Model the fold of this input.
Amino acid sequence: MKILITGGAGFIGSALIRYLINDTTHSVLNVDKLTYAGNFESLESIAQNARYEFAQVDICDAVNIRQLFETYQPDAVMHLAAESHVDRSIDSPAAFIETNIIGTYTLLEAARLYWTNLDETKKAAFRFHHISTDEVFGDLHGTDDLFTETTPYAPSSPYSASKASSDHLVRAWHRTYGLPMIVTNCSNNYGHFQFPEKLIPVVILNALAGKPLPVYGNGQQIRDWLFVDDHARALLTVVEKGEIGETYNIGGHNEKANLDVVKTICAILEDLKPEKPANVARYADLITYVTDRPGHDLRYAIDASKIASELGWTPNETFETGLRKTVQWYLENLAWCQQIEQKRQNAMPL
Done:
């Protein structure tokens, strides 16, 4: 297939592109605006591959997006471009409305115009895959219930509300216009090349620098963690095997309290990096409790049984194996981290 991927310079998008180029015969057009969270370093290993192309275009730019469809003639769209950091959405929601809602609308209209004019064979094969989040469901108050594909939406933050809006737009374009779409909702991703404003890279890098390890509230917020390479495999599985009009939840089967995640990282660092900054006796001594985030969801947990039973996908990594690989990667790529940290500091303030 020829696949148009939006947001391919981001964390999940770059993992997906590396997987497609390294492990399949598909071709990729990466469409990315290159905001502060996008970087070419995560794609350096495949950048010269003949099956990879890049276009620096904002998904809100209707003229150029339509031109890309006409020029590239994709067989599928995988839409990952999004503003995704909850804290930023609380302080600066406008960019989330623009990219996640207006951008998705613009992309849908370009895809619909392109799809409408395809011949019948290509029209039947075309797919619009919208990649979303479990945060659109709000939070779970029980200890045993799980998010399923039919859980009602109840977003809590400007970020999750904007993603919920984009999900609804994609389903409306399918229902009203017949655009062949599939939606996936994933749990928290982690792994190599993750931008250091998210929990796991923040904890790793702060610990190595002897800085406080911030934990919101009491740290008992529970998340399901999904290794990014497992997610990449799942996304392609959905494009290749998923049923039009369906939604698939993608999770790692790894429910962990945030505090336990932080403590596990500290334990791994004690093993892999026992030489600590002078002010640190144990990495865990750096754990610092900070004021909780407004509207902070208590628990997310994904029921990923549908994608397992219908499409045959299950994660390869446990949280323990995936997290150890992640910590090791950051230890081996501190120069990348320093470069990205400088980029983060130059971005709009929280």
The mean pLDDT is 93.
